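Support request from a user on the community tier.

User writes: "When I paste my structure tokens into the form, the page sometimes reloads and wipes my input. The last time it worked, I copied everything first. Here is what I submitted, just in case something in the input itself triggers the reload:"
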């Protein structure tokens, strides 16, 4: 989870209370965050100052916050949430500035942006008063959002600008890099955009983001009315509109490939720092006009509602709560609540209004979680769920694993993902294009698909342990996956059993014996060919086994598995010098 570093003294001053370390740890725990570490930073001293003085030491609290609580990634959001939690503040109401339609700033989006970063959202904060700490907090929040929800700027890139140095309306364009020329942040001279790509390849921070656009024929760029470059997202802002401690009006733009995340990021920025605005919690909107003529006003500060019943909350938490108690608990978590009684007056419901700061609230269960946090997890009595029991398939799996282990086999656990080559050509198999679940964008050639058999993993295990004393007797009970159009996800898991014997001889009779033992302990008798009351074996013709040294297992008229001596070509593909016999069957058919 993300960790936010804040100065202890500044934090306590903003909260309006002083705590001991133990007291603050307890407050964090009650709120659902954690004081992860405490560090002491020494500031530089002048020679004439007393070396023993502690005035130049700053205590830093490193606070771990939930990954989906973007509003807690800066001091301002953290303080606001804690003050509401302990009852010092009411839930703020965020609103738009009252301006006429002609005065609204506009961002015009050009059609070419659809080729690279199609979305942009904007807002203005007016009358901001910056000091060094507030300025640093603004920059830190951008960095944390970029690393978190923005996925290293691939989904969203944030730009903040001194509005008094630029003039609207603005345009969001996508141009060939040779046509973009401006002085980037912290630089005195101008660069073409393609020159910037080369220039920043030696920059430790920015070189990590160059890959996002460097191979594109067009680069995104934002201009003001005078064709002054505001930013080259997601790489760098222009020096002309850089924010300083003297900045009073801040223009915020977020370009994105994901509009939903862009809205969350913009809301996080404006709600956190509108506390410093001349009119607190007031944000000036910006109209974004797309090439098709559609226009939208951002940010979206509207609240949406979720209906949750009192019984739903009490049942999930495991504690009987009163309606007023639930209302108070939700208020502590920044959620406004209205009570509603059903027509028969038997059910109490809550209409929960979710503010723009709480993008993590998506479902009624999220509301329940907030009630549980505010109530206190330590106060919830422990109980064992009445319905807690193992699935029949898992129970059968455990029984079979125990039985095979008692027959002298050692269990192994292999990856469910494998390479395409291992699953097909190295087993002398061909892909029918109807069975295998292929990974769309694998990071490694070792994990290109979901295995359709346990055989590749078992043979790789033996291949990597060929110097182990013989015989090697191993087994695995695990899942494979096959395409299945009847399933909502398009594929289905199947629980398989595999066993392998490797030694000076093939051990075919030992694997055959293991088949008989498994069928015996599962209560399935050996029957004549064609009898569907039990199981029998018949000759098979699988390419991974030797001809005439393999058999199919037929159970109640259906083939459930195969066993035999592994083909020498297959053994050679996995670098195994000794003969092996292998068994694989589907155990779900026994249920």
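"...and here is what came back when it finally went through:"
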């Amino acid at each position: 989870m993300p960790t936010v570093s804040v100065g202890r003294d500044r934090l306590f001053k903003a909260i309006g209370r002083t705590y001991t370390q133990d007291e603050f740890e307890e407050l964090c725990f009650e709120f659902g965050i954690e004081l992860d570490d405490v560090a002491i930073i020494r500031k530089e001293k002048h020679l004439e100052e007393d070396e023993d003085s502690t005035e130049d030491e700053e205590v830093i609290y490193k606070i771990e916050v939930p990954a989906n609580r973007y509003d807690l990634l800066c001091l301002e959001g953290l303080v606001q949430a804690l003050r509401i939690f302990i009852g010092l503040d009411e839930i703020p109401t965020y609103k738009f500035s009252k301006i006429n339609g002609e005065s609204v700033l506009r961002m015009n989006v050009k059609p070419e942006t659809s080729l690279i970063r199609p979305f942009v959202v904007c807002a203005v904060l007016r009358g901001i008063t910056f000091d060094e700490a507030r300025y640093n907090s603004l920059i830190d929040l951008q960095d944390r959002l970029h690393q978190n929800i923005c996925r290293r700027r691939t989904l969203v890139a944030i730009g903040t600008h001194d509005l008094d140095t630029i003039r609207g309306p603005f345009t969001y364009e996508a141009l060939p890099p040779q046509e973009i020329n401006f002085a980037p942040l912290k630089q005195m001279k101008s660069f073409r955009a393609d020159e910037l790509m080369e220039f920043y390849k030696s920059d430790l921070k920015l070189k990590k983001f160059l890959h996002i656009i460097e191979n594109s024929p067009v680069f995104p760029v934002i201009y003001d009315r005078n064709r002054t470059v505001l930013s080259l997202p997601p790489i760098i802002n222009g020096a002309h509109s850089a924010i300083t401690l003297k900045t009073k009006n801040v223009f915020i733009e977020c370009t994105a490939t994901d509009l939903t995340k862009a809205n969350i990021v913009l809301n996080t920025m404006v709600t956190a720092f509108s506390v410093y605005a001349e009119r607190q919690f007031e944000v000036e909107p910006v109209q974004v006009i797309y090439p098709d003529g559609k226009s939208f006003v951002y940010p979206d500060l509207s609240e949406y509602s979720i209906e949750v019943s009192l019984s739903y909350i009490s049942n999930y938490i495991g504690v009987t709560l009163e309606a007023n108690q639930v209302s108070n608990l939700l208020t502590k978590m920044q959620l406004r609540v209205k009570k509603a009684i059903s027509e028969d007056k038997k059910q109490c419901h809550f209409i929960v209004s979710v503010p723009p700061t709480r993008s993590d609230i998506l479902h009624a269960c999220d509301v329940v979680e907030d009630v549980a946090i505010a109530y206190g997890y330590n106060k919830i009595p422990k109980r064992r769920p009445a319905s807690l029991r193992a699935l029949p398939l898992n129970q059968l799996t455990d029984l079979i694993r125990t039985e095979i282990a008692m027959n002298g086999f050692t269990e192994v656990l292999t990856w469910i993902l494998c390479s395409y080559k291992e699953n097909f050509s190295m087993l002398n198999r061909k892909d029918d294009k109807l069975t295998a679940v292929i990974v769309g964008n694998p990071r490694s050639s070792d994990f290109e698909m979901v295995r359709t058999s346990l055989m590749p993993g078992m043979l790789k295990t033996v291949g990597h342990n060929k110097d182990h004393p013989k015989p090697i007797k191993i087994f695995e009970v695990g899942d494979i996956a096959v395409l299945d159009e009847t399933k909502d996800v398009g594929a289905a898991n199947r629980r398989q059993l595999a066993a392998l014997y490797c030694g000076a001889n093939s051990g075919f009779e030992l694997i055959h014996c293991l088949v008989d033992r498994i069928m015996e302990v599962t209560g399935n008798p050996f029957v004549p060919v064609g009898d569907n009351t039990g199981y029998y074996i018949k000759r098979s013709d699988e390419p991974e086994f030797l001809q005439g040294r393999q058999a199919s297992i037929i159970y109640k008229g259906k083939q459930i598995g195969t066993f035999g001596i592994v083909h020498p070509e297959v053994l050679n593909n996995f670098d195994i010098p000794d003969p092996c016999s292998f068994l694989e069957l589907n155990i779900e058919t026994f249920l």
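Agent notes: The reload is a front-end session timeout and is unrelated to the input. Residues 145 and 265 are 7 Å apart (CA to CA). The first helix runs from residue 8 to 15. Escalated to web team.
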